[in-house]
Structure formats: C-alpha cells, structure tokens
Design goal:
3 helices; 117 residues; 19% strand; three-stranded antiparallel beta sheet; alpha+beta
Length: 117
Amino acid sequence: MDLTCHACGFRAHYLEFAYLCRNGCPACGESDLRRCPKCGASCVFSRAEALEDEEVRMNELAYRLWSMKRTQDPGAVKEAKRIIATLSKMNLRWNIPGISELLLHKQKELFLEAGDL
C-alpha cells in the first residue's frame, strides 16, 4: 500500500513513512499520521482508501493473469510469475477463494506440461 506525500509528491510504501500517531476516530475512519522521508511533511495514511485501491489493483491483475496464454517468451513468463506472486501476497489479506482458484489454475496452465498433471 503506497502513500504519496502531498507536499513533495514522493511516493513509496506507507511503512517507509515514519509513524507519528493515530489520527481520527473509529466512527469516522481511523488513519495514521506519518512523516515523509524526503521532505519531512506530515502525511495522512487512510487504510480504508488504500484497501479500496488495492481491490481495484487486484481486479486488474486478475484480469491480466486470466488473459495470459502459455508461452516460451521469457518476458511474458516473468510477468506472469510477478503477477502470481503479487496476487498471492495480496490475497493473504483478502482471502478470496476465486483468486486462490485462479492462481492454482493459471500456474498449472502456464507452467506445467500436460504429462506433469
């Protein structure tokens, strides 16, 4: 989950921004106040907004993986492995059975020979 500094535009994983304190209330939606490692500005990190962005990203990656076909092209194989690793990591948080099934199916389809099954 990335965070972008409103002051300087620096973008990185939110953990690279130093934690300052919790901000907001549970009813309104809590967030973290974090310090930009580049310029020192205080930045608000909203987990709810980050999770919405992650859900959209998961859908995009799942569609890209679903549309991939078996190939010998090293670039395409590397991209498929990257997408599978990213979706696997994201799905540890979401635990969506359909994503798990897609990952298993595509790994078999893309990387196993017919005789391996």
